[in-house]
Amino acid sequence: MDQWRDRNVWRRGIVLAVLAALLGLLMLLHTQLPNKIGNLGSLTETFLPWLGLAIPVLFVLALVRRSATALVALLLPVVTWVNLFGGLLSDKTGKGGNFTVATHNVNAENPDPASTARAVAASGADVVALEELTNTSRYEKALAGTYKYHSVQGTVGIWSKYPLELVQPVDIRLGWVRALRATVRTPQGPVAVYVAHLPSVRVKFNAGFTAGQRDRSAEALGRAIAQEPEKRVVLLGDLNGTMNDRSLAPVTSQLRSAQGAAGDGFGFSWPASFPMARIDQIMVRGMDPVSAWTLPATKSDHLPVAARVKI
């Protein structure tokens, strides 16, 4: 204890204090990071929760250095991280609900489509959305006994226990079909369901976070949803981005994340072997999320995700 009463505790660890302050400012002001340079802002926002791992490292180093200044400076990143993500740590899962949905990027190279389809159907979902479909017939065969109605548009598909109407592709400016819109006639009334697979993003040494095509598709999808006449809307799919990513704002600003509202934890869905980000989303409008969860791993590189809402 005498070591901590020494006046030098406020002089030691200045570098650690500066690093702690910079970490806190990075999380606090992440929306100010420019996207013009390699989409730096979106890249940071994709993995923003993981910046919190630096906090315990800096804490241990501050103790080793016996630096009161560094410990005080750590308050900024701690408070900021808790403010941003503390609400996701609690279990907000509720009971009830009358409409369950699930979505899964099944992976175009999936070696066992049948078992993957059955695993998603085992969630009990009333509506299932699948993305990155190639061997469509095997998914149709595996799901036929559970879902009477289905439609595949391009590489995305929807399977439903309730009748489907007005199924049509949605133009997300790709030149081929990776999104659809359908009206699901539930016992509680019609629900507009969108299934989308936005373009992939890449992290390149010479170009940074290459997400231009995805961002253009997000704008097109956002316009389609904004023009949707139905009051109740569900978006299911692989958006190749998180709810924190500002570039998805044309979509996320209109809808509510089921995981954020009624999930337990972060609900990371990719990569399946060690999930680090939730890029597979279930978002709603005009309905209340009751619970949201990730499903067990399949033969895909994504985890399936599901949610139950109250219509």
From TrEMBL:
GO molecular function, one term: endonuclease activity
InterPro entries cross-referenced by the UniProt entry: Endo/exonu/phosph_ase_sf (IPR036691), Endo/exonuclease/phosphatase (IPR005135)
Gene3D superfamilies recorded: Endonuclease/exonuclease/phosphatase
Membrane-spanning ranges: 47-64, 71-89
Keywords, ordered alphabetically: Endonuclease, Hydrolase, Membrane, Nuclease, Transmembrane, Transmembrane helix
Domain Endonuclease/exonuclease/phosphatase residues, every copy: 102-302
Name assigned to this protein: Endonuclease/exonuclease/phosphatase family protein
Organism of provenance: Streptomyces nondiastaticus
